[in-house]
Amino acid sequence: MKKIVFTLVAALSMLFGNPACSQSPAQTTTINGYQSTWWKEAVVYQIYPRSFKDSNGDGVGDLNGITEKLDYLKKLGVDVIWISPHYDSPNADNGYDIRDYRKVMSEFGTMADFDRMLAAIKARHMRLIVDLVVNHSSDEHHWFAESRKSRDNPYRDYCFWRDGRPNPADPAHPLPPNNYPSFFSGSAWQWDETTHQFYLHLFAVKQPDLNWDNPKVRQDVFALMKFWLDKGVDGFRMDVIPFISKRPGLPDIPADQLAHPDHFYSGGPHRDQYLQEMNREVLSHYDDMTVGEAAGISLDEDPQLVRATRHELNMIFTFDAVELTREGFYGLRDWKLPELKAIYDNHWKILTKEDWDTVFLSNHDNPRIDSNFGDTSSDENRVRSAKLIETMILTLRGTPFIYEGDELAMTNYPFKTLDDFNDIEVKNAWKERVVTGQMTPEEFLARAARFGRDNSRTPMQWNNSPNAGFTTPEARPWLAVNPNYTTINAEAEEQDQNSVLQYVRDAIALHHRYKALTYGDYQDLDPLHPQVYDYTRTLAEPRQNPERLLVILNWNAKPIAYTLPGGMKAGKLLLANVSGTTEADTGTLRLGAWEARIYSF
Ligand code: TEU
Ligand code: CA
Q: Where are the extended beta strands (E) located within 187-265?
């Protein structure tokens, strides 16, 4: 059998003249200098299990709910599903605080449900990656529970315990050991009465940081990674992974970096060494994919994280693009299109053929993609701009990530009061900013409504029945359904030929059809144009059938007559987000509001 396959591959490669293929038929192929892998060619879909589909009417999404919807995802065309944490957790941060890494969160189901879900994913030829949250655990994890018991507990060194600094004003209450701020407000140090020391938590009080300098911690993490890989998961998204190496001696953060501590936290001296050890001991033994949430990292400074020859991670999420729209505390930034282009142009410039990138503008920590980057001022513009954004995500160089609901152009929720929110980030920030009188409630709520993480965590809108088909009509969803579910929902979009859902399916299919969209070269045709983003993706191989694609995005509600630079002509129209578009083979294009097109030329 093997021999037949081999001969077939050899014959095919002779026929199509791919020299790399005939040299190493069973092994890897090189395309345009890139080693081809399944995860470079994949489209990834992120699920926030709590909000995706509730199968048992308790108002909380669950694993059986995901299993129910796999045919929907298969039809959408995605290859890899990433689920946000599914592990046992007291949910101080919706599962990003893990109590037991080998148990399924009871609200989400059982291990049998997980196994069934995984088997069903594989049966559909899709893959699953899970969230690896190991910079910190829950304070209810037994490592921390032990660690906190006494100064000489064998687990003491699993976390960071330090004496406080003397507090002359109130000697009974020492000051935190250093000036580290927590991402969820206040100091990153929590006083613990049991042993009269502080422990470190870069996130919530209930998320103590794990001490990766302790080899036992690393061994325990590697073991739990193997546990899930041996079950058959296809890899990991790694939460704030650059933070695992702390600065020796835990010195103060320089004052000018206090407002953005992530850069400081991500630059510990052993970061790459620990990732290489993880690769050697675990990842290299599996055909897996890894994507690191690289908070604080810029590719200019740290391209080595994804350099294949260094054996650390396959890909990282950097935040340059997704955070372009904001500044300060949930503040709106007046961003310009050339800035967005410059980010992707820069990635293209920095990354070599040994590296790989991600493309995303949304996740469970950010506003809804269309509310953040598009135009929700009218329904028509919402639909067009959502299609335009997905066109871009599916045609830039890098593995595209789609967050649940993006394919429907779900929007931000009309938050009115603090009670409408669930997120610890918002609740804590309210205490720090409003209760202290720094910010008015109105100002705070306006900012949180625009940028709060709960925007992306409202339940998936499956149909127009009460609770949007996310849960039973009688149930109370854990977070309210966006009232626009009556018109924005999967069932309605399934019926509508011009829906965002249908368009995203077409765009994903196109992404798979043209290898140029994965391995092709990238060229920004007009980097400084304030309104149009147009670029080519070109692949010279195979020589007799080269692929040359042109993507044109009118990133604005204003129509424009746009002339392609250098006398270039748009060729054959492959995809357009405005129905009835026929313009082709011309150098000047009349683009309507938020119009997006893909040509082959
Ligand atoms: O996010 C970490 C992260 O970088 C962002 O949360 C950012 O620091 C924060 O939103 C500031 O605005 C990851 C997860 O994606 C997030 O959901 C978790 O809450 C966090 O880590 C802690 O695990
Ligand atoms: Ca449920």
A: 189-192, 197-200, 235-238
Q: In the chain, what percentage of residues exceed pLDDT 70?
A: 96
Rounded to a whole number, what is the distance in angstroms from the first to the last CA of the chain? 41
293 is catalytic: yes
Q: Is the dihedral of CA 138, 139, 145, 151 positive or negative?
A: positive
**Residue 57 CA: which ligand is closest?**
2
Verify whether residue 230 is a known catalytic residue: no
**Does residue 369 contact residue 386 with C-beta atoms inside 8 Å?**
yes
Residues 6+ apart with CB under 8 A from 398: 315, 347, 356, 357, 358, 359
| Strand, coil or helix: 460 | coil
Mean pLDDT, all residues of the chain: 95
Helix (H) or strand (E) holding 111: helix 111-123
Measured distance CA(492)–CA(321) in Å, rounded: 31
- Please give the sequence-ordered ranges of beta strands (E in DSSP) within 302-398, or none if there are none: 315-317, 326-327, 331-332, 358-359
Per-residue pLDDT tens over the stretch 220-253: 999 999 999 999 999 999 999 999 999 999 999 9
Task: Using CB atoms within 10 Å of the CB of residue 338, give its burial: 0 to 12 exposed, 13 to 18 middle, 19+ buried.
Answer: middle
Protein residue with its CA nearest to atom 7 in ligand 1 = 183
Longest Cα–Cα distance in the chain: 83
pLDDT 10s digits, 14-25: 444 443 333 334
Q: Which two tokens stand for residue 319?
A: 């935040």
For residues 63 and 55, what is the distance between their CA atoms, to the nearest angstrom? Answer: 8
The whole-angstrom separation of Cα 532 and Cα 552 is 7
C-alpha 323: how far from its chain's center? 13
Whether 598 contacts 391, CB under 8 Å? yes
Q: Looking at the CA of 56, name the nearest ligand.
A: 2
User: Is the whole-model pTM more than 0.85?
Assistant: yes
Which residue's alpha carbon is at the smallest distance from atom 14 of ligand 1? 239
Token look-up 């040509």 returns 599
**Per residue in 549-558, is it b (16+ CB within 10 Å) or e — as a string?**
bbbbbbbbee
Query: Which atom of ligand 1 lies at the shortest distance from residue 295's CA?
Result: 4
Please check whether residue 430 is in contact with residue 74, taking contact to mean a CB–CB distance below 8 angstroms. no
Residue nearest to atom 2 of ligand 1 (CA): 240
How far apart CA 526 and CA 552 sit, in angstroms, is 10
Do 43 and 82 form a contact (C-beta atoms < 8 A)?
A: no
